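A further point concerns the way the authors explain their paired sequence and structure data. Each protein is reduced to its one-letter sequence and a matching series of backbone shape codes. An entry of this sort, consisting of the sequence and the corresponding backbone structure tokens, reads as follows:
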Amino acid sequence: MIFSIIQLMIMQLILPVVFIISLWKGSFHSKLDWMVQMIFSVFFISWIFFSSPWDWFSYYLRFIWPILLLFAIYMSWKKARSLPTRIKYDSKQKWSLGIYGVLLVVFGMYNVLVFSGYSTDEQAIELDFPLKNGVYYIGQGGNHVQINYHNEYPPQRYALDIVELNPFGARASGIYPKQLDKYDVFGDELYSPCSGEVLEARDHLPDLIPPEADSERPEGNFVNLKCEGKDANVYIAHMQEGSVEVEAGDFVEKGEHIGLVGNSGNTSEPHLHIHAEKDGEGVPIHFNGRFLVRNSLVW
């Protein structure tokens, strides 16, 4: 987990500064040189803006980089606009231009893949959002692994991982606290997203201290609902120990209180996991007509 935090700091904090300053203060030999570096910078900032999980440091931090990038583009263009369109490059200049050209193509493709995950051609089921009275952030969601790691697993292809943001736009007080009550979503009330029959429910597993996880019982405490008229089962997982208020065989109404968000099962920290499944395959979910993806907010 420490490696993941360091990696996130490099991607979200260090590299954007490096590339923006490089564009702003850089010395260019031609308009082509400037354009290749500028387009790469746009693609990189776009990629981290849309694909990176911004709830660790602050959701609002993501908006700083596009603003600074626009400033860097303007300032660098003031230097580059008087340059020739192309020149005869020496070997060092060719290498530099070639490296930026390759990076431009790579991050351009990354952006295409991210945006491909913003929609699906499959028929979605409509559910009510199961959380209330907070600002909720989609940490995992969408139709591509770049924004939703669940996409690799057919039963959970469209699964969502949801946390709550505090006023600073972060999911917790601290980067990765061990105290569960420092995560804003821990203990939040959960409401049934549909009317239907409870097929399974579990309530006795402990809430784990991050980064502990129970890989043998990945759902933790959970509820499995057979939603009326939806032709799919809906799983609500990682619920708090002792909080599940329904049992197998119960019928619940949409909006009925069913428990609390916890940190049980195969989970790295408190969050709500929800997905819909039909015949062992994940089914897309809409909440009020929205197909939620990473970095979506729900009030």
